[in-house]
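Preliminary data (for renewal application), nicotinamide-adenine-dinucleotide complex.
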Amino acid sequence: MATIIDGKRISGEIRAELAEKTKEFQSKHGTVPGLAVIIVGEDPASRVYVRNKHKACAEVGFYSEVHELPADSTQEHVIALIDRLNEQENIHGILVQLPLPKHLDEQTILLRIKPEKDVDAFHPYNVGKIMIGDYNVLPCTPAGVMQLLARSGVSAAGKHCVVIGRSNIVGKPMAMLLLHDNGTVTICHSRTPDLKAQTLQADILVAAVGRAGFVTADMVKPGAVVIDVGINRNAEGKLCGDVDFESVNEVASMITPVPGGVGPMTITMLLQNTLTAAEAALNK
Ligand code: NAD
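Predicted structure:
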């Protein structure tokens, strides 16, 4: 049986540290880090995510504001709001909750956020900084995975790391962070032939595919550390990851569960990025 990497516990630890750092920040600067979240439309899942972000900010002592815009908001209206938040001194991070309604141009909107306030690290400027290893903010989910590994005593150095998935939000930056941690990294994707031959090489296997039960025990090297980024619903409607937990648990040395693994880390890393952005803004 593998050791469970408890994302809920590790996330709680980091949030307690962030709350302490926020107090220090406040006594030094006389203000607290501030996050603005923009949501357009009524998507219920997005509303829950936004509410959770707002609550998480309060928990660590940040200021936060939520801008709920109607589903038929125009591109100009959203851009005007971002422009205002870009200049607002008590806001250090801006996040646009995705997905946006179809009539809005996501790229144009995301690019409008000043790179210094881009706490999702989606702006090409920040993506480029990550590529050259000179970064301030990190994409939240891959950064959360790196924290889970580090706080479980796992370094990528000298290891073969295999990432399944090449999205801009998870797979690609994940591979880059493992590389910066001196791992030897293979990125697999939907066009990879003989995926199993690749995954069996992995000392650290990260699954970011979006398919329930995709990674099975026969694809995992005995003793591997298995990180499950996937969030899916199985046939019974139960929340589950990309990894067939029951069987892989018998082969891996460490494994993240879903829920309670990578998921809780993502908002925590958003808080970390907001503090980092606030420090950069006030230490200018
Ligand atoms: P995506 O759909 O953008 O990317 C999926 C990737 O999987 C693609 O790069 C594709 O090439 C690869 N893929 C698909 N089929 C494959 C196959 N048969 N073999 C090998 N590779 C294959 O998804 P994403 O945004 O990267 O998210 C991946 C998963 O992670 C989803 O389940 C998503 O919900 C979840 N997610 C979780 C968090 C979190 O906070 N825990 C955050 C973001 C995404």
